[in-house]
Amino acid sequence: MKKSFQIAGAYVGIIVGAGFASGQEILQFFTSFGWMGIAGGIIATFFFAFLGMQLTQLGSRLKTDSHKDVIYHICGRYLGVIVDIIITFFLFGVAVVMMAGSGSIFEQQFGLPAIVGNIVMAALTILTVCLNVQKLLNIISMITPFLMVLVLIITGYSLFTMDQSFADLNAIAKAQPQAASNWLMGGLLYVSYNIAAGAAMLAVMGGTEKDSKVAGRGGILGGLGLGLLILLINIGMFVKMDQLKSVDMPTLMLANHMHPVLGALMSIALLGMIYNTAVGMLYAFSVRLIKPSSKKFKPAVIGFGVLSFAASFVGFIKLVSTVYPLMGYLGFTLIAAIILAWFRSRKNRGIDNNTRIAG
């Protein structure tokens, strides 16, 4: 079980930076639909658990060190080329968003120029990606329990101190920018873009475990953990919706309203999660293009990291509202392929069982 929990923690750690850290993502994909955002969160939980299980199990069976083998196995030779290119492109895109998010935290919480946060995150990410993948897993999985505790505290406090009626809060929430046409599409798009971003590292994490059942269990537990975080952050922001208009980092604002110390702790947790995702994305992007054993790997990581740092000056909210929805729609291709591969494997197992019985 230890390995399953390690994979689960790393799964949460990678996805949280891309999809949870600021609260802006939960706000646009769930909270902006009012109470129905909770239904979207439940749907997202199911898909995170199912898709996490499939990708980690495939990574384990194929013993992969990049997402390429898993994608071609799921999608086939021709569709696999397209999905591979999409995922590789968005791995770089999410790394860029993470560096921009770090700049927003430094500016909002510490009053420092955003460029300081961008530089710090870029430097730490580049240095860490030069480590081996097992060390990456250990680092990424460490911060998850810390964030869980902070989110529970903030959500509980928000519920006990809410000062608006549910009807008023529902109206305010629905007036916020929405990243999808309805709550169902919001939940599905949210899973889609996160899986498009996280599939590569999920496959690599699965490849570190020989037992596919252990790897798959880690994917399920990680998906359930992500679902719990969605629901808690969504509820915490919903009951304080009147205070969160036009804020880059809503979860950080909630923590600061509770107590400055909690705000400082939340800043550390958010930076940790953004760091986790930036590292995971840059590593997966780099190993897709250059083998980790190659002498060119570390110089290439430095070059890719510098490029992502340069691109991060577009701005955090703008990047979230453009990169993520586009990524979500393209990620539906990957989800459909994973589901079809699952049906095919079940059908093949059924044929094998019938053959054994007949024999």
Automatic annotation (TrEMBL):
PANTHER family: CONSERVED MEMBRANE PROTEIN, MEMBRANE PROTEIN. InterPro entries: YkvI-like. Keywords: Membrane, Transmembrane, Transmembrane helix. It comes from Bacillus salipaludis. The chain crosses the membrane at residues 33-53, 74-98, 110-129, 136-160, 180-206, 218-241, 261-285, 297-317, 323-343. This is Membrane protein YkvI.
